[in-house]
Amino acid sequence: MLQAYFESIKYAGHLLPVSFLRIFLGYFYLDLALKDWRRYVMVGNSVSELFIEALNKPMMPDWYRILLSEQIIPHWNIIAFIVIGLQLAVGISYVVGYVVRPISVIAIFLCLNYLTLSMVDKETFFKLMIACHILLAWVGAGRCLGLDYYFFKRRRGLWW
Question: Would residue 122 count as lying in a domain?
Answer without folding.
Answer: yes
